[in-house]
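Hey,

The postdoc asked me to send both predictions to you directly instead of through the lab channel. I've kept everything plain text so nothing gets mangled by the mail client. Protein one:
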Amino acid sequence: MEKMEHIIPEEQAGERIDKVLSTLNAEWSRTQVQQWIKDGNVLVNGQKPKTNYKSTVNDQIEITIPEPEELDVVPEEMNLDIYYEDQDVLVVNKPKGMVVHPAAGHGTGTLVNGLMAHCKDLSGINGVMRPGIVHRIDKDTSGLLMVAKNDLAHESLVNQLMKKTVTRKYRAIVHGVIPHDYGTVDAPIARDPKDRQSMTVVDNGKHAVTHFHVLERFKDFTLVECQLETGRTHQIRVHMKYIGYPLAGDPKYGPKKTLDLGGQALHAGVLGFDHPRTGEYLEFEAPLPSYFQELIDNLANNR
């Protein structure tokens, strides 16, 4: 492991330690530095600081730069549906039924396995099991994902998500006929205290906002477009259930009697963001999967 020392000059006094250190090397992202602090790889005057520690003049900083972890995720050749790719970012259309990244006991067949076979340069901020992954969509949700190919791109895309400037539009089929054309669900989400495998709306949850508008009404269902303002786990599925219109086919949040679709009818069809290097706004649109379009056609025919 490489070690580096830095003494805080007057002009850096009062700044957060993670910000100071991220300016020492152009390849170090602030997120990466924060992880080093949490892991105990940064000492201030011989002591472990908190990530929000504010430096003072003549603070002696010692940084132990960890060796890059070897990825233990096996690359797998896959026929990935790639919409865009350059040296910094990649946009891929994930099929329904594919898990985004490996987890304990589930190390193969994921999008990350396929990405690793496709390109070797993926950001390492999210660790060895989730290289390049900036945001996720559920296993049975299809659609577009942006992937970071280096840490600086990763940090830019994460910041855009935090600032709510990324465009994310989904198509969904929900139970029930929604009478109004537009709506916004502003309800905090957290893990369900009664079921740790599920999320739910709770008073002390994380801020979550979903905008939706009706595209087409059927006999017992509605086709909607949902636009995410925040990106909480299962957000659209939880929010639509909360207002009484759960997603069709959803085994976790839908009604007991729902359509047999092998998972929720949800497709991440539009994705837009500012390119991390050029600042140019890029937007992509993926058509509905065949099963989704066939479902719409069948519902329309049975009105």
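Protein two:
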Amino acid sequence: MANVQIVETSLRDGNQCLWSALGVDTAKTLTIAPALDRVGFKAIDFTTSTHMGVAVRYKKENPWERIRLMARAMPKTPLQFLSTGFRFISWETASPEFMALAFQTLIRNGLRRFALADPMNDADSNVACARMIKSAGGEYVIGALVFTLSPIHDDAHYVARARTLAASPDVDAVYIKDPGGLLTPLRARTLIPAVKAAIGAKPLELHSHCTIGVGELTYMDAPEWGVSAVQCASGAAADGNSNPPSERVAANLRALGHQVEIDDQALAEVGRYFTRLAEAEGLPAGRPQAFDAGYLHHQLPGGTIGTMRRHLAEARVSHLEGAVIEELGRVRQELGWPIVMTPFAQMLITQSVLNVTGRGRYSVIPDEVIRYALGKFGRPNIPIAPEVMDRIESLPRARELRREPGMAPLRELRQRIGPELSDEEFLLRATMPAGQVDAMKAAGPAELTYNPDFAPALALIRELIARRDITYLSVEKDGFKLELRGRLAPAEA
């Protein structure tokens, strides 16, 4: 029987899948840090450049400061950064020198483990990133084989890329990343042993989701085929579209005879925290999912389902979700079977929404889809459907984007944006609107503590402060009474 480790994913993947990447901030992150560090996780799946952008845009918090504080609060457990190809925050393909600076800055701020998941399964690209990371002092690099179902993604596809990753001295381990939760035990029975044979002594991890109810079952068989670590979320941040729940996975693996060496009391504390957080903030809790064969068609990963629903709701077309998901499967086939992960998941969703809500299919084609068709993100796995490619090629915008220059040289970017800026601020301003970075800086330091038990009371106080028609407030509790008279205003609160 195997000794199986756990990588905790609640702060990154669980937060993204169930809470649209908006469920945690710096205070909520730091509050649970001591318990996370006691559990004995192999690593914490902590952030991506996308989440760093969310911290700036929606939370008005400095993501670099969050990384620094969390790294100091968790000295025993490595924090992981997930990188999806040559991109950082924006969708623009970054230059190698820009990516090298990004990796150097992440490492300097305390990130120790890097997961590399190229959206094209470009193993050579992952190896190039791994070399940059190790040169900058990164401790651990794990290269991803992103799993999907299509006529071209067979075992041979993954074995060839696994060999390339394993041959690199800068890649410490490999993991099968199943963002759609599509890897069944039957499919894994050939895939996992084949990948393990290709990588030899290098460790193999497995990352899946509960989206159609099969990910957790695959975790149970995976150790017998050579998987030494599985990636799980905790409490309300698990299940649903998120990752399998850590407590249940640990208990079931042990019941099957495997060893899982973790602090169960600390793990239970982590689970309770994320459940209390969800209850206090009105966030949805993950629930076990029934099998849904429709996912085998569109393959929408858990991390983008929440984002898609938020965008549909903001556009007031939530009722079209079913039609968009059905359209997504057709669009994916027409575009050459791209893997449904960032940034391709967002492209596919956007095109599908436009096809459903527009005058006709492909009547509007976003720039990012045009760039993809033109090879700006790498060559599609197979040629794009001729009628779609003809439509794209006929667009004046396609001719403009074909001539579009790549990212400016790093020296030129620094001169244009501000040579006096720190690396941290420069990287944000090079990839985000200036106004959003300005608003983050104006907001000042982030809160550092959070208690979910206080959240309802704080929400009530904020609501009362926002009103101008209240002149009397009484709060009573056993042995306590507070009365406030006069118009409530922010300064008086």
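Summary for protein two, as requested: The chain has three domains: 5-281, 297-402, 459-485.

Thanks,
C.
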